[in-house]
Every structure is written in C-alpha cells, then in structure tokens.
Amino acid sequence: MARVAVIDPKTATGETKQLLDAVHAGLGMVPNFIRVLANSPAALNAFLGIHSIAGAGVLDPQTRERIALSVAELNACQYCVSAHTAIGRKAGLDNEEMLANRSGRSSNAKAEAALAFARALVEHTGQVSKGEFDAVRKAGHSDAEIIEIITHVAVNIFTNLLGKATQVEIDFPTIELNKAA
C-alpha cells in the first residue's frame, strides 16, 4: 500500500483532473505512479513536462527504455523495473535484451555504451571520468545524445526515488529485481 494517497482520476478536480485526463488520453490508463505524483499538480506537471521533452529527443525509444531499466535495477526500484519492462516490450525490446539491459549490457554495441555511461552517472553521482565520457563518444554518441542520456538518468532517478519512497503499488505485471541494492 502506498504511503501517500493514490489519487483517483474519477474524483480528481481542477488542474489535477486535467493532468490525469491528459495522461489517460495518451496512455489509455493512469498508472499508480502518476496517481501518487498527482498529490502535487505542480510536481506532476513538472514531471510530464520533462518526460515529454526527454521523449522528443534524438535517442530512440529502445535506448530510452534500456536506460530506464538499467537505472531502475541499479536503484532497486521494482515498480520502475516492472513498468519499464512493459513499456520496453511495447518499444520493441525482447525479454532477453531487457534482462541484459538491467545488468548494463545490450546486444547493440552503441546501446551498451549508453548503458555503461548511464550506470557510471548513477554509480558516481555524475562524476564520470574522462575515460567513461570518451567511451560513450567513441561508440558514436553525439553531444545531443550524451545530454539526453544524462537527462534520462536524472528523470529515472527521480521516478525510482518516488516509487521507492512512496511504496506505490505495482500496476504492471510484476518483475522481480535481480538483486537488492
């Protein structure tokens, strides 16, 4: 059970209702994570804004989901691993690839470099080495892609923190974590 109220879109009012209706229109559902975030319309609006900007960038949807899975596993956020497994499947990732992604690996060399960089960002709280930075660039990532990798890591750390702190109920098929963080 979540530690904070899970807002029901049917009884929400004002800005909260508008935001939840927009999420429903886009996804066909309102995940519990969003319902918890809706306790603060300002926080929900900010999240939706950064999420939409991050989704409109140059990184392909599969790489974005790979990053989300890797960061969620590193941070031991079962809600996020479960959600991004479902989202990753819709983005075209298969189970074997997603399991590898959760450990920082990929069958795609460029994606694996993005995951290594993303994991370094998490593990070193942003203090990546010159070698780690050079490796992601050498793998073919542009400056725009590198900035977007950093953005996706930051957004996913936020969602991991929110999911774990509030203990939001998983409303996707539940995926077990590989290990406890």
- H/E element string? HHHHHHHHH
Number of domains: 2
Helix content: 55-70%
Question: Mean pLDDT score, rounded?
Answer: 96
According to CATH, the fold-level topology of the largest domain is AhpD-like
Alpha carbon gap, first and last residue: 21 Å
The general outline is globular
Named at the architecture level, the CATH assignment of the largest domain is: Up-down Bundle
Total E-strand runs: 0
Q: Give the C-alpha Rg.
A: 16 Å
CATH C-level of the largest domain: Mainly Alpha
How would you portray this structure in words?
The chain is mostly helical. The protein has two domains: 14-55, no CATH class; 61-166, Up-down Bundle (AhpD-like), CATH 1.20.1290.10. Helix content is 65%, strand content 0%. It has helices spanning 14-27, 32-37, 41-55, 61-74, 78-90, 95-102, 109-123, 130-138, 143-166.
How are the secondary structure elements laid out?
Blueprint: H1 14-27, H2 32-37, H3 41-55, H4 61-74, H5 78-90, H6 95-102, H7 109-123, H8 130-138, H9 143-166
Helix pairs in contact: 3-9, 4-5, 4-7, 4-9, 7-8, 7-9
List keywords for this structure.
single chain; globular; 9 helices; 181 residues; mainly alpha
Would you summarize the structure shown here?
By secondary structure, the protein is an all-alpha fold. It is 65% helix and 0% strand.
